[in-house]
Amino acid sequence: MDRLRRVKFHAKAQRDKIKDASMTENEIAKIVVDVCFKIHTMYGPGLFESVYEQIFCYEWDKTSIPYTRQRGIKVIHEGNDMGIGFVPDIIIADKLILELKSVEVLAEVHYKQLLTYLRLTNLKLGLLINFNVPLIKNGIHRIANNL
User: Fold this and answer.
1) Average pLDDT, the chain
2) Cβ atoms < 10 Å from Cβ of 80
3) Which residue among 25, 57, 81, 93 is least packed, with the fewest CB closer than 10 Å?
4) Residues 124 and 117: beta-carbon distance below 8 Å
5) E-assigned strands of 12-79?
C-alpha cells in the first residue's frame, strides 16, 4: 500500500472509531496530525496559512467531530468583559486548540501565545502546526496546559 493510501486508511479508521464526545485530547490530536500529514503530503510547504486552514476544515468536516473556526474569545478581567481578546484558528470538540502557521521559522511568541490561549479557555491541549517545513513532523508542536 503506498504512503498516501496508508494515511487515508488510517485517518478513516480513526474517524470511524470515535464519533462521540468521549474522545480524549490525545485521541483528537492524533487525528489532527493525520489530517495535517495528509495535507502536507499533497501540497507541501509554500501556501498561505489561510489555504492550509481552509483545506484542514474541508478535511475535518469528514470526521463529524465538531469544531469552530476563527471564533473570537472574550477576556474577562476582574469580572469585567474586556471584549474579544483573541481569535484562535480552530477549536476542536471544545478540547483542543489548533494554531496553524506557514512561516519560515516559528518564534518563541507563537508557543507562548498558544499557551496563553489554553490558559484563558481552560483547555488542556493545543497543537501549533507550521506547514512551511520540508517535513511536517518538524512543524508539529504540542503545547500542554496541565494535561
Assistant:
1) 89
2) 8
3) 81
4) no
5) 67-69, 73-77
C-alpha to C-alpha distance for 130 and 128, rounded to whole angstroms = 7
pTM: 0.82
Report whether 71 contacts 57 (CB < 8 A).
no
Query: Per the structure block, which three cell numbers stand in for 73?
Result: 474569545
Alpha-carbon span 61 to 21, nearest angstrom: 16
C-alpha 68/C-alpha 118 separation (Å) is: 15
Q: What is the domain extent for residue 72?
A: 3-144
Q: Say how far apart CA 23 and CA 65 lie, in whole Å.
A: 10
4 pLDDT exceeds 80? no
Between the CA atoms of 49, 51, 57 and 59, what dihedral angle is there, to the nearest 10 degrees? -120
**DSSP-assigned letter for residue 145:** S
Beta-bridged to residue 73, according to DSSP, are 86
Ramachandran angles phi, psi of 9, nearest 5°? -65, -45
Write out pLDDT tens, residues 28-66.
Answer: 999 999 999 999 999 999 999 999 999 999 999 999 899
Number of domains composing the chain: 1
